[in-house]
Amino acid sequence: MWLGKFLDLEKDIDSMASEIKKVILANLKKTKLTPLEFTILETIFNYKELSGYDLIQHLDVHFAGIWTAHSGTIYPILSKLKKNGFLLSKPVKSALGPLKKVYYLSESGQSILKLKVNKNFGDQINFVENFLIELASLYIHSSEEELKEEDLAKRIDEVLESLRKSFSKITTGISSKFAISRKCPNPECDSETVRKDADYCAVCGASLSPKK
């Protein structure tokens, strides 16, 4: 979620160490990206590598019906990002057999994305918070009929419950995405538990807490 017509990368590149800056400038042929171009880089980065088709599917999920990605839009952007040094591609064997092209971030592309996201993460969170407050307020006051006090209270409760469910999905999604599996210490079991915070093995019940 990035605002503005272009994301200017020049200041970000200038803040890098001189040796890294030389490498970045040598490999990148462009220092401005559109919000959609940056979103594409973020999506590919999060999934390590993606084919054009899979990228389109993920973008459709990302935009949740607000905007639909089309091959006629996405593939030219992928070609441009590759030409400008942000992406690389390679052929891999697909599940059905034929080779398919997958895209992944170049070293320079990764460096600039990581810097940009780290510098702007707090601002982006604040933007999301402000956006949700404004959207909720707009929804609450957009009833076609003038609401009585008790109906207004119900509408507010509806919005708060919807937000609670959304935040629950967010926290669960983040936790599951970064869950670290650990092997059971019981040699007769040797299974893996997915939850990082698990105290006991889900298979044999052995304690996963470090021995004191």
Write structural notes for this entry.
The protein is mainly α. The chain is 54% helix and 11% strand. It has a three-stranded antiparallel β-sheet with strand order 3-5-4. It has a two-stranded antiparallel sheet with strand order 1-2. It has a two-stranded antiparallel sheet with strand order 6-7. Helix 4 crosses helix 5.
What descriptive keywords fit this protein?
7 helices; two-stranded antiparallel sheet; 3-stranded antiparallel beta sheet; 7 strands; disordered N terminus; mainly alpha
Q: TL;DR of this structure?
A:
This protein is mainly alpha-helical and 212 residues long. The chain has 7 helices and 7 strands.
Set out the fold topology.
Layout: E1 7-8, H1 10-14, H2 18-27, E2 32-33, H3 35-46, E3 50-51, H4 52-63, H5 71-83, E4 87-93, E5 99-105, H6 107-140, H7 149-177, E6 182-183, E7 192-193
Antiparallel strand pairs: 1-2, 3-5, 4-5, 6-7
Helix pairs in contact: 4-5
